Amino acid sequence: MFLLAITLFTIGSIICCASHGIVSMLVGRSIQGIGGGGILSVNLIILSDIIPLRQRAQYQGYLQLCFAFGSNIAPVIGGLIVQKTTWRWLFYINLPFCAISLATVPFTIRYTRPKITTKEQLLSIDWPGIMLSIASTTLFLVGISWGGTEYPWSSATTLCPLLIGLAGVLLTVIYEIKYASVPFLRMSIFQNRSAIAAYACTVLMAFSVYATAYYLVLWLLAVKEMSAVMAGVCELPLGLTIVPISGATGAAITRVGKYQWAIWLGWVLSTLGMGVMVQLHPDTSTVAYVFMFICAGIGLGLLFNSLSAAVQAISPTKDVAYASSMFAFMRSLGLCLGVSIGGTIFQNFLQRRLEHYGLSPEIAKQAQVYVEALRSEPASPEKTLAKQIINWAFQMLLATLCGISGLGLVISAAIGRYSLDKELDSQHVIA
Question: Which of 152, 231, 336, 396 is most deeply packed, by most CB within 10 A?
Answer without folding.
Answer: 231
